[in-house]
C-alpha cells in the first residue's frame, strides 16, 4: 500500500503539471494518515514452531525428576498443570519458526552439518535452579574435560541458522538447562477464579543442591523437533536426528 501511495505522489502521469494545491494537499494528507496507521499496527510476532535439542534419557535423571515434581505438587498443588512430562526432558539448543514444509526441509541439513562437527558430550545434573518465579529447571553441566562443548554446539547451530535467510530467528541467550516446571503451562480448573501461580522458593528451596544424576550421562544425538504433538513414547515429534561423532 505504501509503495502505491509513494508512486501516486511522485508519478508525473497521475497529476497534471502544475498540480492543483488542493489535490496535493489531499494526497499528502492521505499519505500521512496511512503512514501513521501502519506504524502503529505491530507486526505479528513470530513464535517458534521447531527447535534443536539434546534429549535426556538417563533413567536416574528421569526418576529424580519424577521425585522432584512429586515434592513440588505436595508443596503447591496449584502447580500440577505446570509440570513438564519427564519423558520430554531435554536441553534446547536453538529455536526456529518453520511455517511451511519447504522451511522444514531447509532446516533438516543443519542437524547433520552440526553433528558432524561435534563430539558426544558428557554431562551431569547437580541440582535445580530457576528463571525468576516462572521456570524451575534441572541444571545441566558438562564434566570438566568436556567444558564448553554445549556452548560451542549452540553457537554452531546459531551460525548455520544465520546462513539461511529464510530461517532467521532470534536466539535467546544460551544457558544449558532442562525445564521441569513452568507457569506458562498453567491451566485453571473450569469456572475457577484462581490466578496463575508462581514458583515460590518454599517449593524448591530444599531441592536446589541435591544432584539428579549419579555420575554422568552422555548426549550422543542431536534432534530437530516439532513443538506441537507427542509421539508414542511421550517425546516431541522428531523431524531429523543425527549422531554426534
Describe the model.
The strands form 3 sheets. The protein has a 4-stranded antiparallel sheet, with helices on one face. A 3-stranded antiparallel sheet has the order 6-3-8, with no helix packed on it. It has 245 residues and is α+β, with helices and mostly antiparallel strands. Helix 1 (2-10) packs antiparallel against helix 2 (21-40) and helix 4 runs antiparallel to helix 5 (149-162). Helix content is 32%, strand content 20%. The protein is built from 6 helices and 10 strands; from the N terminus they run H-H-E-H-E-H-E-E-E-E-H-E-H-E-E-E.
Question: Whole-number radius of gyration?
Answer: 25 Å
Give the strand order of the largest sheet, numbering strands 1, 2, ... along the chain: 2-1-9-10
Structural class: alpha+beta
How far the N terminus sits from the C terminus, by CA atoms, comes to 52 Å
Largest sheet, in brief, is: 4 strands, antiparallel
Helix tally equals 6
Quaternary structure type:
single chain
Q: Which SSEs are present, and which pair or pack?
A:
Layout: H1 2-10, H2 21-40, E1 50-55, H3 59-75, E2 90-96, H4 101-115, E3 121-124, E4 128-131, E5 135-139, E6 141-142, H5 149-162, E7 177-182, H6 201-204, E8 217-219, E9 221-226, E10 238-243
Antiparallel strand pairs: 1-2, 1-9, 3-6, 3-8, 4-5, 5-7, 9-10
Helix pairs in contact: 1-2, 4-5
Q: What keywords describe this structure?
A:
245 residues, alpha+beta, 4-stranded antiparallel β-sheet, 3-stranded antiparallel β-sheet, 10 strands, 20% strand
Summarize the structure.
The protein has 245 residues and is of the alpha+beta class.
Amino acid at each position: 500500500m505504501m509503495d502505491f501511495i509513494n508512486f501516486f505522489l511522485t508519478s508525473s502521469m497521475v497529476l497534471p503539471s502544475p498540480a492543483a494545491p488542493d489535490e496535493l494537499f489531499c494526497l499528502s494528507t492521505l499519505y500521512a494518515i496511512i503512514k501513521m496507521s501502519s506504524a502503529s499496527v505491530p507486526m505479528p510476532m513470530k513464535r517458534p514452531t521447531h527447535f534443536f535439542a539434546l534429549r535426556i534419557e538417563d533413567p536416574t535423571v528421569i526418576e529424580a525428576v519424577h521425585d522432584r515434581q512429586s515434592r513440588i505438587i505436595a508443596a503447591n498443588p496449584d502447580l500440577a498443570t505446570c509440570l513438564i512430562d519427564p519423558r520430554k526432558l531435554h536441553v534446547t539448543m536453538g529455536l526456529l519458526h518453520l511455517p511451511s514444509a519447504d522451511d522444514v526441509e531447509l532446516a533438516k541439513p543443519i542437524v547433520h552439518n552440526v553433528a558432524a562437527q561435534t563430539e558426544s558430550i558428557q554431562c551431569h545434573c547437580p541440582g535445580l535452579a530457576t528463571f525468576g518465579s516462572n521456570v524451575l529447571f534441572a541444571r545441566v553441566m558438562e564434566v570438566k574435560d568436556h567444558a564448553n562443548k554445549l556452548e560451542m554446539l549452540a553457537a554452531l547451530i546459531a551460525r548455520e541458522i544465520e546462513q539461511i535467510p529464510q530461517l532467521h530467528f532470534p536466539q535467546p541467550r544460551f544457558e544449558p538447562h532442562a525445564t521441569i516446571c513452568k507457569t506458562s503451562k498453567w491451566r485453571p480448573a473450569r469456572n475457577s477464579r484462581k490466578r496463575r501461580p508462581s514458583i515460590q522458593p518454599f517449593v524448591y528451596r530444599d531441592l536446589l543442591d541435591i544432584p539428579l544424576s549419579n555420575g554422568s550421562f552422555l548426549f550422543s544425538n542431536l534432534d530437530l523437533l516439532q513443538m506441537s504433538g507427542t509421539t508414542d513414547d511421550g517425546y516431541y515429534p522428531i523431524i531429523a536426528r543425527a549422531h554426534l561423532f
